[in-house]
Amino acid sequence: NGAGPSRRGGKMASTAAGKQRIPKVAKVKNKAPAEVQITAEQLLREAKERELELLPPPPQQKITDVEELNDYKLRKRKTFEDNIRKNRTVISNWIKYAQWEESLKEIHRARSIYERALDVDYRNVTLWLKYAEMEMKNRQVNHARNIWDRAITTLPRVNQFWYKYTYMEEMLGNVAGSRQVFERWMEWQPEEQAWHSYINFELRYKEVDRARSIYERYILFTLLVIVHPDVKNWIKYARFEEKHSYFAHARKVYERAVEFFGEDHMDEHLYVAFAKFEENQKEFERVRVIYKYALDRIPKQDAQNLFKNYTIFEKKFGDRRGIEDIIVSKRRFQYEEEVKANPHNYDAWFDYLRLVESDADAETVREVYERAIANIPPIQEKRHWKRYIYLWVNYALYEELEAKASKRTRQVYQACVELIPHKKFTFAKIWLLYAQFEIRQKNLPLARRALGTSIGKCPKNKLFKGYIELELQLREFDRCRKLYEKFLEFAPENCTSWIKFAELETILGDIDRARAIYELAISQPRLDMPEVLWKSYIDFEIEQEEYEKTRNLYRRLLQRTQHVKVWISFAQFELSAGSEESLSRCRQIYEEANKAMRSCEEKEERVMLLESWRTFEEEFGTDVTKERIVKLMPEKIKKRRKLQAEDGSDAGWEEYYDYIFPEDTANQPNLKLLAMAKLWKKQQQESEAAEMDPDKDIDESES
């Protein structure tokens, strides 16, 4: 029976549970992802942070008797030991354990913990430092010394141990002990700061000699072991000597530094410091020598500070010449950079050479010239060589005029003519300058040989002219004749050469040879300036007063050309002949010219002839001849013609002037039409004037 109610009760409970309502879950309306996403890592971190925030602080425990204290110590020690047992390599656990024992004044226990920790990791620097600091705090000096000795023996390259050890000894007043520690340290050849700390330690106790000996040892290490081959170490040593008024020692240090680094490892900071030291000693000449020595040897891009200090020095203590030297040095640096960037920039070389010529010795100038001429143009084309060849010209002129070295000048010219590719092109200027140089040296055979070689290798008009001019100055006329013959064989179309040759013969009084030369010249099939040649021949015959030959020349010339200027010149010649028949001859030539020019298409030339004829008649003619020439003058009219562009399209109209000559029978209908048009235009103007003035018509009718 007892079971019944229990079963009934269980059934009722289950029935009640079945009837209990399950809460509805809220439906999510917007299932889109949020703009700011939260990761699982962030959720866990926030939970951990809030857990720490919610932890209540540990309760404060008040210890009232020794038994409770011992119990507290036992629990803490057990905690520390458990932590150490879990991970022996975590040194922070050891340090916390030792510091806790130290706070309880349990020094022997703390010392034991540190020793145990050192057995675990003796390379840990922090462990040694904390151990030694604990001993020093508790005034256990010998223990601290023992720890420092063990530390520097175990880890000699940890500079912090040495610094702490020497500082402790110095604070204790044990100067000898501190010095001994420093000496032990220096045996390990430490870094630069360690040596300076030792030096400063000695200086604090006014031990200048000891400090100097340390510097010497330091420099010795630099020289032998090359541990710190740095300029600043030498500068510090020198400044140390200067500070203590040992100026001779300081200068000697600088000199040793310059000697040690040599020219391969020069540093501008060393020379700037050396120069400033000498400047403080009022040794201005030594300063100038130091700066110049350094500037000549240090690469320019590494000497900017040197330039700046040298400029300041010269402005303070130098004269105008010194300041100019500085400016020259700066400009030399700029030119060096330009020619280094582009060795074939010949304009930069010219500027550079002009600078060094104005302020440098001969050897320096020659060196720059040699560097410049070594940059031969890469392409054998004359346009690339035109600027380059002037480097040789300037070099030779410098050697001759400035250096007064004739032998070197000859070598320069010879090297230049050997370098030029004469089969492709040449430079007549070089050959002529070479010959003129040899003449100035009174060495005529070499000058002739040079010019002869030039004509043989690469004949040019300029070379022939220069050689002929040279022989003319020397009054070697037979040589001049031979040269002219060679010249005309080389260039028979050159009218100037024919004229000069004939003029030479005229000057020498050989008229027949001169005439024969002119005849040969005008018989050439091709000439560059035939009009100049004919004019010269005609002028030659006029000077010889050979008027018949002159007329024949004009007739021969007119057979070749009917140019209007030839006719006008012929007429003026007849006018100037001075004979009785000169006027009639002149008029006859104008008549012939007018007939010949009728078929000429260039009407302006015919107009020019008629104007010249009219001028002649106005001065020398009669009324009949004047009236006749007036009738021959053309009518000037304005016309229009179509223009066409290059593509054949219509480009509009243009106006031009045309001439209508009365003698041209073909143009007579046009003249009649023109006259009728003029008459009609005149009548139209009169009728318009009558309409504008009716009173005048009435008066005329009444009258």
Characteristics:
single chain; 703 residues; mainly alpha; Serine Threonine Protein Phosphatase 5, Tetratricopeptide repeat
Characterise this structure.
The chain has 703 residues and is mainly α. Among the domains are: 80-155, Tetratricopeptide repeat domain (Serine Threonine Protein Phosphatase 5, Tetratricopeptide repeat, Alpha Horseshoe), CATH 1.25.40.10; 231-318, Serine Threonine Protein Phosphatase 5, Tetratricopeptide repeat; 636-665, no CATH class. The chain has helices at residues 3-19, 40-54, 66-86, 91-103, 107-120, 125-137, 141-154, 159-171, 175-186, 192-204, 208-224, 231-243, 247-261, 268-280, 284-297, 304-317, 320-341, 346-358, 362-373, 382-402, 406-419, 428-440, 444-457, 461-473, 477-490, 495-507, 511-522, 530-543, 547-560, 564-576, 582-597, 603-620, 623-632, 668-692, 694-702, and strands spanning 635-644, 650-660. Helix 4 packs antiparallel against helix 5 (107-120), helix 22 runs parallel beside helix 24 (461-473) and helix 24 (461-473) runs antiparallel to helix 25. The protein starts with a helix and ends with a helix. The model is unreliable at 1-19 and 695-703 (pLDDT under 50).
Per-chain topology:
Elements: H1 3-19, H2 40-54, H3 66-86, H4 91-103, H5 107-120, H6 125-137, H7 141-154, H8 159-171, H9 175-186, H10 192-204, H11 208-224, H12 231-243, H13 247-261, H14 268-280, H15 284-297, H16 304-317, H17 320-341, H18 346-358, H19 362-373, H20 382-402, H21 406-419, H22 428-440, H23 444-457, H24 461-473, H25 477-490, H26 495-507, H27 511-522, H28 530-543, H29 547-560, H30 564-576, H31 582-597, H32 603-620, H33 623-632, E1 635-644, E2 650-660, H34 668-692, H35 694-702
Antiparallel strand pairs: 1-2
Helix pairs in contact: 3-4, 4-5, 6-7, 7-8, 8-9, 9-10, 10-11, 12-13, 12-14, 13-14, 14-15, 14-16, 15-16, 16-17, 17-18, 18-19, 19-20, 20-21, 21-22, 22-23, 22-24, 24-25, 26-27, 26-28, 27-28, 28-29, 30-31, 30-32, 31-32, 32-33
